[in-house]
Amino acid sequence: MTSLAIPHPRPAALLGVAVAIAIGSQAMSPLLGPGRLSLPQTPPVESRPEALPAPDPAIGAPDVALVSIDSAIGRWTANVKRDPVDYISATNLGSLYASRARLTGSLDDYARARRAAEQAMEAASSYVPARVLDATLLYATHDFAAAATAARAIFAAQPTQLQALATLGDADLELGDYAGAQSAYARLASVAPGAAVTARLARLAWLKGDPAGALAMADEATAEAETGGAAGASLAWYRYLAGFVAFQAGELPAARSRFEAALADQPGSYLALNGLARVRAAEGRYVDAITLDRQAIAIVPQPEFLGELGDLYRLTGQETLAKEQYATVRAIAGLAAINRQVYNRQLVLFDVNHGEQLDEALALATTELAVRKDVYGYDAYAWALLANGRAAEADEAMAHALSLGTRDALLLYHAGMIARAVGDASRARTLLTDALALNPGFDPLQVVRARAALEELR
Amino acid sequence: MKRPRIHLKAGALLAAAGLTLTIGGPALLVSGADHLDAPNLGSLSAGALKGDRDINDLYVFQGGDASRTVLAMTTNPAVNLPSIDPFGHFGSDVRYTFNVDRNGDAVADLAYVVTFSTPGSNGSQDYTVTRYEGSNAQTLNQGVWWGSGSTAGNGIGSLKGSGRAFAGMRSDPFFFDLIAFRNTLGIDSGTRTFCQNPSDFFVGLNALGIVLEVPDDQLGGTHIGVWATTSQLIGGAWVPQDQMGRPAINTVFNHTAVDKNAFNVTAPADQRTAMGGKFRQNIIDTLIGPVQFGGSSSPTLATGLSGLSGTPYTADQAAGIADLLLPDLLTYDTTQPAAFLNGRALADDVIDAELGITTRGAVTGDCVSAHSDYLGSFPYLGMPH
Question: How many domains are there within chain A?
Answer without folding.
Answer: 1
